[in-house]
Amino acid sequence: MEYHIYCDESDKKGKHFSNFYGAALVKGPDKEDIEHTLRMVFQENNLFNELKWQKVTENYLSKYLAVMDKFFDLIVKNKVKIRILFTQNGYSPVGLTDQHKEDEFFILYYQLIKHSFGLQYCNDKDGPIYLRLYFDLLPETKEKCDIFKNYVHQLQDTPSFKEKNIIIKRDYISEVDSKKHVIMQCLDILLGAMVFRLNDKHKEIPPGKHRRGKRTIAKEKLYKHIYNRICQIKPRFNIGISTGRDSDSDTWNGPYRHWRFISRDYEIDETMFKGNKKNKL
C-alpha cells in the first residue's frame, strides 16, 4: 500500500494562535480519482487559476463553497484524512536553545508528519507501507530543507515506523508547486479558514472604515460553511484544542483532527489568551 501526504503551512505568528500546519493524506489507489473529482468541480465553476484562501471574494464565494463541499464529501467518506497543527500563544515553551528557536519551523513540521496521522496504526498486514510526501515550496534555504527532508526520511528507522514496515524513500519527499495540485489547494483553503477564525480575523475592520470589508464577510461565510461540514463529522467540534479520542488508534482512523501542540516544558502567559484585555497583539 502507498499513501500520499500533502503538506502546507500558514501564519507563523498570530494574535492568539501561531505556527499553523496542515496535511492531507490519501491512498495511492484513490489519488487519481480524487484529483479527477476535484478538477471536475473546478471546471464546472470556471475555476482555472489556483485556489487560495487569500483569494476568497464575495464574487467567488459560491465557487469556493462548491469546491469545499466536494472536498468534505471526500473527507466524510475517509477518502481524504485531514490533520491541522497549531500552537497557542498562551502556552510559552521554556528551556529552548537558540538552535531550537532557529529550527522551530522544521521541528513542528516533523512532529506533524511523525505523530498527527497515527501512522503506527496504519498497517495491520504483513506488506510494507510506502509514504510519499509533498510539501508546498518550503520558505527556507536549500541546505536547511535538505536537512529537514533527511530527518523525515529517517523516520522509517524509528521503532514505531520500523515495526509497522513504513518506508519513506528519500526521493519520495519533494517540494511542489501548489498550482499543480488540487488537493493542496483545498488544504490551503481549509488551513486558512482555521487561521482566520482562531485569530479573530473575522472581526477586522479596515483602517478608516466603520464596518468590515466585503472580503472579510465572504471569508466568514466560507469559514462557517466549512465548520458546519466539520461538525457533520464530529458534532460541536472545538477548533481551538486537540481533538479528543476514545482510543489511540483514533489518531489514524479519524477523518478530521486538530492538534494544539504544547511543548513538554512550558509556562502559561494569561495575557495571551483570548478574552484577556491585555492581549493587544
From TrEMBL:
Domain of life: Bacteria
Any one Pfam family match given in the protein's UniProt record, by short name: DUF3800
InterPro entries: DUF3800
Name of protein: DUF3800 domain-containing protein
